[in-house]
From TrEMBL:
Protein name: SLAM family member 7-like isoform X4
Region of interest (Disordered), ranges: 268-309
The keyword Manganese appears for this protein: no
Organism: Gymnodraco acuticeps
Start and end residues of each Immunoglobulin domain: 24-124
SMART domains membership: IG
Top-level taxon of origin: Eukaryota
Signal sequence residues: 1-18
UniProt-listed SUPFAM superfamilies: Immunoglobulin
Upper taxonomic lineage: Eukaryota, Metazoa, Chordata, Craniata, Vertebrata
Amino acid sequence: MKLFVFVFVVYELYLCESKGISAGTPVFVLKGEDLLLNVTAADALQDVYSFSWTFNEKKKVLTVEPGKKPHVFPNYTRRVEFPVNNFSVELKNLQEADSGVYTAVVTTSSGGDTEAAKYKIKVQDRASLPLLTVSSVSRNSSSCSFTVTCSSQDSHINSTFRCDNQTYSQEGGERSEGIPDTFLQVHQSSGSIICNHSNHVSWTNTTRTIKDVCAKPYDPDPPNPVPIILGVLFTILILAIIGVLWCLRKRRTSKRVIIENTVYDTAQFGPPARTQDPTDDEDSAPPLSSTYACVGPHTGPAAPTETRNTAQLESVYAQVL
């Protein structure tokens, strides 16, 4: 039984090795990069009549004869460089459509064809940044457990973590999954959860600390009402002061307008009014007119007593300003 198993394993290894040789040497290239394909079978270059590189065994890349310039086919114009001395070829600015099998074929003088090199090219883009999400968090005084999901555009994996007094354990997520040649992995290291996304040409990751995941949610204290009340009172006080100042200014403006609108006339002096004769008839007497003046203190020489007494009997009127 053991001998049967051993023979079966050797046979499988032989098949895998045979498939690898027939398929060509696997090479992974980052999108946009250049790749040099060397000729590995040096003995095949002893009797060369013509040499060619082909893509997927049907599409010609270039052909060359010793001593002549290589002929590059239209689809690869300005996309390859060919040093004639060793028959290697450099592919420029590779894209995903350039993935496939490239074969170097030597045609001998006798007309036979020999493979001098064969490569299986896989062009890959950079691995995208994975998304790490946390769910189902359970906390108590001594432990914490939670589930994380590590996902990319094409696949995702889940894993459950448990923390007991700085001791971490993990269930699931350690395996790699995804589309061919692309991998996802979740693990913990130095107190952090790490989600890796990689392929054969690049890798990237997203991390999150376990302490942040297991921390109790922050419960803020209720706001203190005192600053709010003081702020409202201060605002009311400021508005009241502004209102009082505005009223006082308006009142002063009104008084100024009244004073400026008051008009005074100029005093005019006329002849003294005729003294009414007691013997005159009321109907014949001229109409009386009232004249007012601003009377000031007497500044001239003192009049005789008689004259003064006589003048007192007369009514003198002046026209007021």
